Amino acid sequence: HVQLVESGGGLVPPGGSLRLSCAASGFTFSSYWMYWVRQAPGKEVEWVAGITSLPSLFRAASYADSVKGRFTISRDNAKNTLYLQINSLKTEDTAVYYCATIIATIPRWGQGTQVTVS
User: CB–CB of 93/106 below 8 Å?
Assistant: First the structure.
């Protein structure tokens, strides 16, 4: 069955950095676009970044305006792992971060990892 397991969150001061990871299993990871989304306390889920499934030479990434220039999404298809490098953290980045994909029109995501900027 499909599993997405996020890790790497924590408590960091403003301006700090973290690298989130998402270990994927139960599906052909390399064939699917992958995403990071987040949910801050009391707010709706917000799309953060996405990355195509194309070979690395043609791979493309896109970002929400709120994180552009600070966050970098990447993937290692050999390790079935998705990453999110987050730099220059701001207090408004505090949220639970989820990796996600869409398989057969059904969104799938993991249990999330908490990022607290304070």
Answer: no
- The burial of 107, by beta-carbon neighbours within 10 Å (0-12 exposed, 13-18 middle, 19 or more buried), is given as exposed
Query: Which residue from 43, 3, 49, 52 is spatially nearest to 27, judged by alpha carbons?
Result: 3
Contact 16, 8 (CB under 8 A): no
Instruction: Give the chain's length.
Output: 118
Q: What is the pLDDT along the chain (118 residues), one digit of tens a residue?
A: 999 999 999 999 999 999 999 999 999 999 999 999 999 999 999 999 999 998 878 889 999 999 999 999 999 999 999 999 999 999 999 999 999 999 999 999 999 999 999 9
**HSE value, Cβ hemisphere, 13 Å, CA-based, for 44:** 2
